[in-house]
Design goal:
single chain; about 280 residues; alpha/beta; Rossmann fold; 4-stranded parallel beta sheet; 10 strands; about 15% strand
């Protein structure tokens, strides 16, 4: 049975970082409905095992399927690295992650074949960016750096703070010494540091935002499967507060505050659910 093209897109992340992916989907696919789940009770995923991340991701996919989604976006680099391959085999709903789109664009962007990746410990240890990039071009060298302190700094709202600049500069120092000309922001929080990372890395380094690239990959997928939502639909039917639905496993007030600092659309409420029930 063909999925309903008017059904929503399911998007999930370990917490609030995936809202940068939601923001790009809102901007680039304005007709699409979205159901977002943030696993705020179990964040972060970046320091957890592959088995644990896969188990969490399976539960979230089960929940999203109860929302009759037509496609799923794993808006988390760690979950994309650890769970996407298994979920693709297990799930009858089209599903994409954020790693492959970012890796693909980085391959096209590099001129000197030296690419840096900043991400969580889990994403860096998975070596998935390196594998995908070198599958496309074995001559490209990939240099990874885990940057665990950047996520809490972003969530604290310190995106332009001198302390954040100093931390980013220390993390990026060795990568820049490797003469990288392309830097993948391999965690969904990092696009919120884009201007600061631009200052640290300099104008000669191309910054790759997997959140934006994922929205473009999603657009291509929906068109290919004829699942794209006709623009006129939302002008005729439901109001905006029915278009975007948000769920979290804990701390919904903090979730709302962060979401409203990131999204172009002010969300009214986030529902808390017991994700362990799925």
């Amino acid at each position: 049975m063909k999925a309903d093209r008017y059904a929503p897109i399911g998007v999930f992340d370990s917490g609030v970082g995936g809202l940068t992916v939601v923001r790009e989907i809102m901007r680039n696919l304005p007709a699409e409905r979205i159901v977002y789940f943030g696993d705020t009770a179990r964040v972060p995923y970046g320091n957890k095992s592959k088995e644990t991340v896969l188990r969490y991701s399976r539960q979230i996919v089960k929940f999203l399927k109860t929302q009759q989604v037509k496609a799923i976006v794993i808006a988390c680099n760690t979950a994309s690295a650890h769970a996407l391959d298994d979920l693709e085999l297990e799930t009858d709903v089209p599903i994409i992650g954020v790693v492959k789109p970012g890796a693909s664009v980085a391959v096209k962007a590099t001129r000197n074949k030296r690419i840096g990746v900043i991400a969580t410990e889990g994403t860096i240890k998975s070596n998935l960016y390196q594998k995908l990039i070198q599958q496309a071009d074995p001559k490209i060298q990939v240099f990874g750096k885990a940057c665990p302190l950047l996520v809490p700094l972003v969530e604290e709202g310190w995106t332009r703070d001198p302390i954040t600049y100093e931390v980013a500069a220390r993390y990026l120092d060795k990568l820049l010494q490797e003469d990288i000309d392309t830097l993948i922001m391999g965690c969904t929080h990092y696009p919120l540091l884009r201007s600061l990372l631009r200052e640290v890395a300099g104008e000669k380094v191309t910054l790759v935002n997997p959140a934006y690239e994922t929205s473009q990959a999603l657009k291509r997928l929906l068109l290919e499967l004829e699942l794209d939502n006709p623009d006129i639909y939302w002008e005729q039917t439901e109001p905006d507060d029915e278009k975007y639905r948000f769920y979290a496993s804990d701390a919904v007030e903090r979730f709302n505050a962060f979401a409203n600092s990131v999204l172009p659309y002010e969300i009214q409420s986030t529902k808390q659910i017991q994700i362990d029930d799925y």
